[in-house]
Amino acid sequence: MSTYQSVIYALLHGFCEILPVGGTMVRSFVSQVFDWPEPQGALLGVLYLATALACFGHFRDDWASMTSSLIRVVLYRRRPMTVDERMPFIVTLATLPGLVAFQYLQIPVQAAFAAFSPLLLWGIYVGLSFPLLLVEYMGRKSKRSVDWNILDSVMVGISYLLWFVPGSGRTETILLGSLFRNYNREAALKFGFYCAFPVLLTVSFPLLGTLDFSNRAQAQEGVSWMSLAVAFFASFFSAWLAVGGLVKRARKAGFGIYWITRILFGIGAAGFLWFRANR
Predict the structure, then answer these.
(1) Euclidean distance between CA atoms 7 and 144, whole angstroms
(2) How far is CA 180 from CA 36, 102, 135, 158, in A?
(3) pLDDT tens, residue by residue, 199-222
(4) Closest to 129 (Cα-Cα) out of 28, 34, 268
(5) Does the pLDDT at position 64 exceed 90?
(6) Contact 243, 53 (CB under 8 A)
(7) Angle 130-39-269 (CA atoms, 0-180°, nearest 5)?
(8) What is the mean pLDDT of the chain?
(9) In 149-232, where do the E strands start and end?
(10) Separation in Å, CA 91 to CA 7, 79, 116, 173, 235
(11) What are the Cα distances from residue 230, in Å, to 34, 53, 151?
């Protein structure tokens, strides 16, 4: 894979992993259109790592406060009371089902969906957009960040399992569960980024383990160390911009534009692939 291809994938990954548009399907579409190899192994791990660090960096003050609060709870053996004291436990409950499923079910689930035709996968991508559009305009959206509790985190954790389905996306599944539980958009989005950091970090570790440190020319087969470094910074930069833009969007307007974009993009991508296969 050339440095140019790595950078294009990195920029797309940073934006599409953060924005609720289904990053995996976008990468797959680019690969099919241009006949490029998809990022695999260490390169994909670097992209996930860069995105995780961008999520962490934007909310570093929140993480510092939550970490210090957790240390006080543990040292003084007291019940978590404030939102910063409860949040580490709530994030753990929400992400644990997905991380366990990732560990034990990732390979069989991927094998099952690999047998699906591209058009069917894009149909699933479009179909998943409608529940997102529905919860966007339903409910009171009256809950705030201080209202997070164990029941809500478990319910969001169950919805988070949907990110195994191609085209669902991590941001989308967190927002689906959070909005369904009537959290306002800003609270839902912040919680999504809290959960994204440990999940993306965990996903990146096995992939980074494939780095070939014995080879000074290539980090993995077909990918140079230079391409890997440039891809990391490109993915971090685009993810940083995406996080900031999405947070501002949550404060001023809803996410409806993203759900409509998903539907239109999915229909367009499916139509393009069908036309190319039958021309």
Answers:
(1) 38
(2) 38, 24, 6, 12
(3) 899 889 888 888 878 877 787 888
(4) 268
(5) yes
(6) no
(7) 35
(8) 86
(9) 218-220, 223-224
(10) 32, 17, 33, 14, 24
(11) 21, 15, 42
